[in-house]
Amino acid sequence: MKRLFLAAAVLLFPVLSLDAQTPDTLAVSPVDTTVTADSLTVVSYMSYDSLMTYLSGHVSLSDSLIKAMDGQVDRNRGRAAQGYRIRIYFDNSQNARAVSEQIVDTFKVHHPEVPVYRIYDNPYFKVTVGEFRTKSDAMRFLEAIRPEYPTVFLVKESFSTI
Q1: Domain identity same for 111 and 54
Q2: How confident is the prediction along the chain (162 residues), in pLDDT tens digits per residue?
Q3: Listed residues 47, 76, 105: the one ending a domain
Q4: What's the domain range around 150?
Q5: What is the DSSP string of 26-38?
């Protein structure tokens, strides 16, 4: 199964890389979307469904390959991935609940595209933001928000992939 998936990826890679370099797809690419805001570039990678939609117009895929890819997605459903998040607040003072709620609201206004998580881990209220696959992406965003939140730090966590 892995060999079939790898063979398909090797065969499809040249098609995708050549098509992605044509002048008409440089402006807005259906493969990934890039949003630039204040020298911070956020890249949304395509999901499996958008890949299949994109490929359907350019490449014909066999039913067995589609079935193999669907099976791989089903087997990995709910599997946790390792990644990084940024802790922007944690405290256990008497007003920590109210402060953490205020920080969540403020962060959502300034960065609506970034997921925010507020948890209570006895005795601390914690506010964590983002889901970054690589440490370098997380550090880039951390440095961008450090002026707003001077005590930020990186946290390695597991998060759901699908």
Answers
A1: no
A2: 556 555 555 555 544 444 444 444 334 444 445 554 445 555 444 445 556 566 666 777 788 888 988 888 888 887 888 899 999 999 999 999 999 999 999 999 999 999 999 999 999 999 999 999 899 999 999 999 999 999 999 999 888 765
A3: 76
A4: 80-160
A5: HSS-SSEEEEEET
Q: Find where tokens 């005590």 sit.
A: 151
Range 27-36, long-range pairs (CB < 8 A, 24+ positions): 30/54, 35/113
Count structural domains, the chain. 2
> Would you state the structure tokens that stand for residue 138, as one six-digit string?
């997380």
Q: What is the pTM of this model?
A: 0.55
Q: Give the CA distances from residue 2 to residues 62, 78, 128, 139, in Å, rounded to whole numbers and listed in that order.
A: 16, 20, 35, 33
Instruction: Read off the CATH number of the domain in which 153 is found.
Output: 3.30.70.1070
**Phi, psi dihedrals of residue 113, rounded to the nearest 5°:** -85, -10
